Amino acid sequence: MKKLALASLLALLAGTASAQYYGEIGYTSLDLDVDVGPTLTSSPDAVRGIFGYEFNPNLAFEGMLAVGLSDDGVKVNGTSVNASAEVRHLFGFYVKPKYKFTPQFEVFGRAGFSKGKAKISGAGGSASESESGLSFGVGASYAINQTVSVNFDYMSYLDESDVSVDGFTLGLGYKF
Fold it and tell me: How many CB atoms neighbour CB 104 within 10 A?
């Protein structure tokens, strides 16, 4: 039993020998859908930052924060109305399995938890809504050199019964 525990510890340490911190920043185009009887849709923009810790070449853990850059018009059942929507913030925590096809190109998945807040404003006032839940996504990264990469991903940040937020992000990554 001691040999098995020692072998497991050595394997864990060998797997973390390449551990590395990294950060990403990117532009995110979001789709916000709120179903409150009629369906409200909007496409606001956000800036997203990720801070991660790579345990080994195939697994990382990440924290994410996105804040709204701009609001967008609102459509109710497909018809534009005099209102706007913005995502105030999103934050989450993820496990990130990944696979390198070449030393420069990798694909990855993300699975975790996120929480967000959106605001809809119109002539009749404004309303804010906060939601949280499971979050997931897929993406790819291309390393320009050993420290800088270009990233692209699709994320479903929230998909609850009456609110969904998803979007595409184009960003830059940096390994410390």
Answer: 12
